Amino acid sequence: MRWLFLVTLSFPLLAACGDETPRTTLPEFDDPGLMQGKNTWMQVCRNCHLNGVAGAPAVSDAAAWTERLSKGRPALYRNAIEGIQTEQGWTMPPRGGNERLTDEDIRQAVDYMLAAQAEMSAQTE
């Protein structure tokens, strides 16, 4: 019985041993829209945008966001809502792959990501 107890306790510890993924601390905001945006972002967007998976710009990559922001926030909203498709296929699926999200959900998630990116950039300066 002790053996089973020790094995059960050790699984979470062992699972963390091989995880060398850097931990990104995401900022919190008091604005209700940004709080809702973070909820959507955590459920849908972070899968690619936390660490820059599949060509998505990581939330912490200031250089990647500078270029995108130069096109204006409406273009970012449009890309997130409609998706970005290339000859090779979708690089950004419409609505992050979740068709149940409203346009407002998407705009709030984009606003959160941009606010988080700005906050993270300010902390590294």
Give your account of this protein's structure:
The structure is a single chain. The protein has 125 residues and is mainly alpha-helical. It has a single domain (2-124), classed as Cytochrome c-like domain (Cytochrome Bc1 Complex, Chain D, domain 2, Orthogonal Bundle). Helix content is 59%, strand content 6%. It is built from 5 helices and 2 strands. It has helices at residues 2-17, 32-49, 62-69, 73-82, 103-124, and strands at 84-86, 89-92. Strands 1-2 form a two-stranded antiparallel sheet. Helix 2 crosses helix 5 and helix 4 (73-82) crosses helix 5 (103-124). The longest helix has 22 residues, at 103-124. It is globular. The termini are far apart. Residues 2-21 have low confidence and may be disordered.
Note the topology.
Elements: H1 2-17, H2 32-49, H3 62-69, H4 73-82, E1 84-86, E2 89-92, H5 103-124
Antiparallel strand pairs: 1-2
Keywords:
125 residues; mainly alpha; Cytochrome Bc1 Complex, Chain D, domain 2; 5 helices; 2 strands; 59% helix; globular; disordered N terminus
